[in-house]
Design goal:
Layout: E1 5-7, H1 13-20, H2 29-37, E2 40-44, E3 49-51, E4 60-65, E5 68-72, E6 77-81, E7 86-88, H3 94-97, E8 101-104, E9 108-113, H4 115-124, H5 133-140, H6 150-154, H7 156-159, E10 172-173, H8 179-189, E11 193-198, E12 201-207, H9 208-216, E13 237-238, H10 243-253, E14 257-262, E15 265-271, H11 272-276, H12 282-292, H13 296-303, H14 306-315, H15 320-346, E16 353-358, H16 359-362, E17 374-378, H17 384-404, E18 422-424, H18 425-437, H19 441-450, E19 453-458, H20 461-474, H21 478-488, E20 513-514, H22 515-534, H23 541-550, H24 556-582, E21 590-591, H25 598-622
Parallel strand pairs: 10-11, 13-14, 17-18
Antiparallel strand pairs: 1-2, 2-9, 3-8, 4-7, 4-9, 5-6, 5-8, 11-12, 14-15, 16-17, 16-19, 20-21
Helix pairs in contact: 1-2, 10-12, 12-15, 14-24, 15-17, 18-19, 18-20, 21-22, 21-25, 22-23, 22-24, 22-25, 23-24, 24-25
Length: 627
């Protein structure tokens, strides 16, 4: 992040800004001087992300010059701030603190203070609370303080691109360089690793651990080429990926350095130190602890924290998009660790495979109440007689382990432990061909599960090649898409003729709204149809809608409306489940209108109306080619 920070210790325009400010000028001159001395100054160029999503709660800022934008990247809401305006802790309302981010629109200068400074001033001068709404709210409701929980500080992991955390240009050497020259360069630059480049291609990585374990410990000749001690099979991360992804990748593979690429171009290196010094957060430590477990009992104990994690995220007013990614990341970690434990007990797999998540896990949309949908894609070299017993025991152990961790067995048995869903790639290709060419009711039901897939562990090429083959056959296939639309319309928003919400009349949860099947699933279904029609491969519903708008399958306005409706409905669901967990109840999807304010009820009707309208548009578009 291009900025410089320094303590104010001399006469500066900040002093004049504080003395003339409508809030700060009310303080005694001595305290204004103290406030000036406690400030950190930042100068930023246009486009700099000053505080990523989730970071506003960590600092109070004053714009000294230039113009900023406060933006909710999930909902698209934005406001502009100019010189003299405050933002962040205390100044930004509580509901926005966790979701909004700050970006410089022009060259700008700001002063920043830690939360403790404002807390102390408000305690000494209570009249200031009228200017700082989120401080006042935190005083009354400390349990909802976004600055008080690790979950809130974790939110920026989702929205902060890795490229903003790179501190310097990559330190590189040719592979023929000597070990001694490499060590000397690392000492001169004060770094713990060097990347090896050959013909503009990244070919290796050497760390201080390599020097210690492979050179010093074995008394290796330091005149040898450094390539002899380098790690050649490198994991890398893309510069625009979220920081959370990098941390989980490091935890999963027990590594401390990740080269950062922009497509294929090397742009830098990040380390666990770079990340954790800015992002110490409980979800990251939870995932890291999961990978350290050696028994199912240990994993069970950790999985019990997921409900509490969702409570923390709801209290921090996290977006549903961020919450889904964080909760799903924990499921991914549990799944991968169970796979690793299964391989330790059964031995290495006899042929390549890919463990694949389906449904909400594939879409990064899980909540604390989730069953498991998964499958196995095996290499075409698989032979049932030679390899079947291994993969049957392997998948049974992993699926039973997930069930023990709270992810109950799928009622429809759509799991890798079911023989049908544990097949070679060529069999999976035949499954999809039949579902597309013969879209009968069961095939359409399976399509809704197995067109949302994401590789979790193994040979990812098995899925990517399969996915591309499938999209070739669905893109523009009006007959198949018409059947998909007909099937999707079985899930309708609960709106009556006059726009009133219709509550369920019977069953186990009368007089409630099924937020999942009546609200969220219809949006997921719409996005899936758009994606299949456009040949779009992304699985997350929010991202699908954005990609399909870019591909022309749905208008930008309609896609934005659906994203906003999804965010609103999913946040209602998350908050509802968090309240149930706090009351010792099992979380579910059935919301009573009594839980909502009149304002929320009005927005609920608007969200349902958006879905209803766009279902009608699709129905009309494909009505001619249905049968």
């Amino acid at each position: 992040m291009p900025h410089s920070t320094s303590k104010t210790a001399h006469v500066h325009p900040l002093a004049a800004a504080l003395a003339q400010h409508p809030v700060w000028h009310q303080l005694p001159a001595k305290e204004i001087k103290t406030l000036e001395a406690q400030a950190s100054l930042q100068t930023a160029t246009s486009g700099t992300v000053l505080l990523a999503q989730g970071q506003l709660a960590g600092r109070l800022g004053l714009v000294l010059r230039g113009e900023l934008q406060l933006l909710d990247p999930d909902l698209g809401h934005a406001v502009r701030l100019g010189a003299g305006q405050l933002l962040g802790y205390g100044a930004t309302p509580l509901r926005q603190l966790a979701n909004w981010q700050a970006t410089a629109l022009t060259e700008a200068e700001l002063a920043w203070w830690p939360p403790e400074v404002l807390q102390a001033l408000c305690a000494k001068h209570p009249a200031l609370l009228c200017f700082f709404p989120s401080v006042a709210l935190q005083t009354a409701h400390p349990e909802t303080s976004p600055a008080g929980g690790d979950a809130a500080t974790a939110l920026n992991l989702i929205s902060t691109p890795i490229r903003t955390l790179i501190k310097c240009a990559p330190i590189t050497l040719p592979p023929a360089s000597s070990i001694q020259a490499t060590a000397q360069l690392m000492r001169e630059r004060g770094v713990s690793s060097v990347l090896l480049m050959e013909a503009d291609q990244l070919v290796g990585l050497v760390t201080d651990r390599d020097l210690r374990n492979k050179v010093v410990a074995d008394a290796l000749d330091v005149t040898q080429p450094v390539a002899s001690i380098a790690t050649r099979s490198l994991l890398t991360v893309q510069a625009n990926s979220p920081a959370f992804e990098a941390l989980l990748l490091m935890a999963r593979h027990h590594i401390h350095h990740l080269p950062v690429l922009d497509d294929s171009e090397l742009v830098g290196m990040i380390t666990t130190t770079n990340l954790t010094e800015q992002h110490g957060a409980s979800p990251v430590y939870l995932a890291s602890d999961i990978y350290k477990q050696t028994t199912l009992d240990g994993l069970q104990a950790l999985s019990g924290r997921v409900k509490q994690l969702q409570q923390q995220l709801a209290a921090a007013d996290a977006s549903a998009y961020s919450t889904g990614h964080i909760i799903t990341a924990i499921t991914d970690a549990l799944t991968v660790r169970l796979i690793q434990l299964a391989e330790q007990s059964l031995g290495p797999a006899p042929v390549p495979y890919l463990w694949v998540a389906a449904g909400s896990q594939a879409r990064h949309e899980q909540t604390a109440k989730s069953d498991q949908d998964n499958c196995l894609i095996l290499d075409d070299g698989y032979m049932e007689a030679a390899h079947g017993a291994y993969f049957k025991a392997f998948s049974q152990q992993v699926c039973d382990g997930l069930a023990a961790c709270g992810y109950v067995h799928c009622p429809g048995e759509m799991m890798a432990m079911t023989d049908t869903w544990r097949q070679p790639r060529n069999v999976w290709a035949e499954y999809f061909r039949k579902w597309i060419e013969q879209p009968k009711p069961k095939a359409l039901m399976l399509t809704c599960v197995f067109f949302d897939l994401r590789g979790i562990h193994g040979d990812t090429e098995l899925l990517e090649s399969l996915r591309q083959d499938v999209l070739v056959h669905t893109k523009g296939n009006s007959l198949f898409l018409a059947h998909m639309v007909s099937n999707a319309l079985k899930h309708r928003p609960p709106l009556g003729m006059f726009g009133n919400i219709t509550l369920s009349k019977g069953g186990d949860n009368p007089h409630t709204i099924d937020l999942k099947h009546s609200g969220i699933v219809p949006i997921v279904d719409l996005a899936r149809i758009y994606a299949l029609a456009a040949g779009v491969s992304v699985a997350n519903t929010h991202d699908r809608l954005e990609a399909c708008a870019n591909a022309g399958q749905v208008s930008e306005q309609s896609a934005r409306d659906l994203r906003d409706a999804l965010e609103f409905l999913a946040k209602l669901r998350i908050a509802h489940q968090a309240r149930q967990t706090a009351q010792g109840q099992a979380p579910d999807n059935f919301l009573a209108l009594e839980e909502l304010s009149n304002f929320e009820r009005s927005h609920l009707k608007d969200a349902f109306a958006v879905v209803q309208t766009l279902q009608g548009v699709l129905q009309q578009r494909y009505s001619g080619g249905r049968f």
